[in-house]
Amino acid sequence: MNVRKRGIGKRLTELHRWNGWIVVVLAATGLLLAWEPVRGWLQGYFRNPVKQLHIVLGIMSGILLAFYLPLLPKHLKQIRRRPKQKANLIFVLALLAGWLISGIVLWQIRSFPPAWANGALLVHDLFTWIGGPYLVYHSIARLKWMRRPERRAIRVEEETEEAGSGGGRSPYGEPVPLIHRRQFLKWTAGAAIAAVALPSFVRWLASSGGGGMGLPGVEGMAGSPGADANRMLPPPTPLPDSANVIGGGAQGHFRMYTVTRLPTFDSDTWSFRIFGLVDRPAEWNWGQFLALARTVQVSDFHCVTGWSVYGNTWEGVPLAAVLEAAGVKPSAKYVKFYSGDGTYTDALTLEQARMDDILLALMHDGKPIHRDYGGPVRLIVPKMYAYKSVKWLSAIELIDSEHIGYWEERGYDTNAWVKG
């Protein structure tokens, strides 16, 4: 029987060790994908390999969890008289299961409705903010140097804790301090982790609650911008439906991602043009672009990373009207879009570009689009994920062959249709 118990214990130890290292690397890759200071650096060709590594590690963690489940009843039996260990086990299993299920939804985002992905991202983030600091604390508390006192001293400490002593004398007649060395170190580590993690968690909690204008950037954006760096005068005057947000009004929260240095624009030098395989190339300055006929629509906005914002009221110039006015030549097959940052491009087929809900948007919920969020003009393609909605839109070119856009070069699917 003892040999069998030792065998089970050894397997549990191995599973714990392997899963511990996997969770460490999962946390590191997850932070690289989400942490704003390094996200921009990663957005080049490194982001997709890091994302794929994160997915593979998540699958490996799920496999280890599957190997562990048959051992769970025996493990619970072993620790039935250790309530702290049992509570820790249940909490960690809940974390792993939550991460795994929400991660699968985000991994297979195209197979689920946007509302599922939105919920999965919220769960994944929440479990990370709660579970990450806890696992760090759990790891530190179990380091060998935290348990270095003599074996006898440790035994005194453990037996005193079990007896519920708050000082006085141990079962061996020795004085026991109110706070043991191990307790002091654990409390100090916990306070330090809380001090680092809590402010960021509060900011995440506040930002995830929505509110404020936050148009997505290359994939999406977050937070409330300061003063608009663009100097676009006069600002666009909203149409009545846009000003009154009839039938719309953004519900949800936009997260802010950016991959290039934010450009600035001035109405005195800003221009927009359409060229390439068209009969009537054209270029507009800011005043002329404001004079183009605009329309208002209400549509949802979906990011391929999982979040969505519903009921946005967009106002802008229909792309189909611009193409018709320019006169598309028969040899044109694709429409290429240029960002004013000089880096970001993308493309649609001519058939896709003629959909009647694609806008060259100037306003969102009755307000000019902020520079940080793609203003003064950005593309809006409601039926596709947000990486197709090029921000800082400055030019359109009609071409006869397929163009691989910025994100497609970095592993994103050319087919960006949102399910449903």
Automatic annotation (TrEMBL):
It is found in: Cell membrane. This is Molybdopterin-dependent oxidoreductase. InterPro entries: Cyt_b561_bac/Ni-Hgenase (IPR011577), Di-haem_cyt_TM (IPR016174), OxRdtase_Mopterin-bd_dom (IPR000572), OxRdtase_Mopterin-bd_sf (IPR036374), TAT_signal_bac_arc (IPR019546). The keyword Transmembrane helix applies. Residues 262-407 form the Oxidoreductase molybdopterin-binding domain. It is a multi-pass membrane protein. The chain crosses the membrane at residues 20-38, 50-69, 89-109, 115-137, 187-206. Coiled coil: none annotated. Keywords: Cell membrane, Membrane, Transmembrane, Transmembrane helix. Residues 15-143 form the Cytochrome b561 bacterial/Ni-hydrogenase domain.
